[in-house]
Amino acid sequence: MIIISNTIVIISMNEVRQSSAKVFLSSSNPLNWNTPTSCTSISCDVAPFVLRSNDTTHFVIGIECLSIPLAVYMVNVNNNVVELDGVTITIPEGNYTVTTLTTYLNSQTGVTGITWAFNANNTNNNKFTVTYPGITFFNGNAYTLLGYVPSNIFKLSHTFDNTVNLAYTTGIQVRLDNIQTDNRDSQTGTSSIIARIPITVAPFKVLQYFNAQPFYTTIANRYINNIKISLLDDEYRPLVLVGNPQWNITLRIDFADKVQSVREQKLIESLNTNMLTARK
After folding, report:
1. Cβ distance 44 to 35 under 8 Å?
2. Which residues of the chain have pLDDT under 50?
3. How many whole angstroms separate alpha carbon 79 and alpha carbon 76?
4. Quick one: which H or E segment has residue 278?
5. Closest CA relative to residue 115, chosen from 96, 127, 128
């Protein structure tokens, strides 16, 4: 507290409090699933975290660890539909090689009139070439898998623009659906994604992530009594896990002081100078 003549200037200090509260979340209870058939988006109640309206601190949050069985098919409901001039091909879910995928697509030639060839004459750099009787339109969600750009195609033989991608996703994005963050995203602008966990194990192995010093994301919420988390693939779609295996995540929530503005700091310095001058 600083007193200058009859003016009282109060410089408050934040109260000392315990930091690094941990929140342990699990998908084990289907009642917490946000959709009846998928465990990759869960909503869990927690003991409330509360900041008073006049409190100068704010919450920050980070991921300490994530443990998730990587039960994923390279072809699933997120990437298995090809639409061709009103005809729909649904590729059965599962894991494929380029050979088995090409075999399945050519098994549909009687329906579509289209034949598929991968890396024809070794000149198209891991891309599909399609041959068909006339103008067609490629659409559906299999564009990343097969490498086409949704559009009209006017040539009788056409090589797709992009390479075949059998990986499905190379990382898992963790999003807080009911908490506002200061993060940015090149596709969505502002974002509540707090981490992208790279996939470093083969399908149907357990992906383990641990960071003793997590990167903290500033959040705007001043009252938290529920945490809703979604796991997404590279295309921002809900991650598809075969058989809904149980996964676990540990979050750390800290309290951080806001940095005083330069103007506030200069005001305090000016008041201190005036106080010293008045005493002389």
Report:
1. no
2. 1-18, 260-262
3. 6
4. helix 262-279
5. 128
Residues 6+ apart with CB under 8 A from 35: 41, 238
On the CB side of 230, CA atoms within 13 Å amount to: 18
Output the CA torsion sign for 157, 161, 167, 173: negative
Q: Where are the beta strands (DSSP E) in 70-154?
A: 81-84, 87-90, 115-118, 128-131, 136-139, 151-153
Of 19, 63, 59, the closest CA to residue 223 belongs to: 59
How far is the CA of 273 from the CAs of 126, 203, 261, in angstroms? 72, 66, 19
Closest CA to 72 of 252, 231, 277, 262: 231
Using an 8 Å Cβ cutoff, are 129 and 159 in contact?
yes
Q: How far apart are alpha carbons 69 and 253 in whole angstroms?
A: 25
- What is the average pLDDT score of the chain? 85
* pLDDT tens-digit readout, 242-265: 999 999 999 999 987 755 444 555
Contact 46, 226 (CB under 8 A): yes
